[in-house]
C-alpha cells in the first residue's frame, strides 16, 4: 500500500516555474515506477512524466520535454516535478501516481495508487 500526497501547486505567470512534490508513505515506494499526470477542465487525464524505480530512465510527454524534470529521492520517499517555462496550457490539476510495473509506464490505468491532486494555474 502506498499513500501519496502532492504539494506545491499554485498560481504562476506564464514563463515562470513551480516545483511539485509528492510524499509517499509505504515500504514499496523505492521499487515503484512514479508518474505525474494532469487533467485540465473538460479534458482527459494526460500522462506528463514518469521515473523508473532507480530514478533513470525518465519519460516525458512531448509537450513538456525540455521544460519539466521529474526526480525522486528514495531515501526520503519523495518524487518531484520541476516545471519551468510554464505555459497557459499547462494549467491543470496535477496528480502523482505509483505503479508496481517496471519500464515505460504511460497509461493511467496501469498505475495502482494516486494522490489527491494539486492545482496548477498559469496566467497569461
Describe what you observe in this structure.
The strands form 2 sheets. Strands 2, 4, 5, 6, 9, 10 and 11 form a 7-stranded mixed β-sheet that branches. This protein is an all-beta fold. It has strands at residues 3-7, 10-13, 18-25, 33-39, 46-51, 58-60, 68-73, 78-83, 92-99, 113-114, 118-123. The mean pLDDT is 95.
Whole-angstrom Rg: 13 Å
Record field, number of beta strands = 11
Overall average pLDDT: 95
Beta-strand fraction estimate = over 45%
Q: What profile does the largest beta sheet have?
A: 7 strands, mixed
Described by the principal axes of the CA atoms, the overall outline is: globular
List SSEs in N-to-C order: EEEEEEEEEEE
* Unreliable runs: none
Features:
single chain; 124 residues; mainly beta; seven-stranded mixed sheet; four-stranded antiparallel sheet
Short description:
The chain is mostly beta strands.
What are the SSEs and their pairings?
Elements: E1 3-7, E2 10-13, E3 18-25, E4 33-39, E5 46-51, E6 58-60, E7 68-73, E8 78-83, E9 92-99, E10 113-114, E11 118-123
Parallel strand pairs: 2-11
Antiparallel strand pairs: 1-3, 3-8, 4-5, 4-9, 5-6, 7-8, 9-10, 9-11
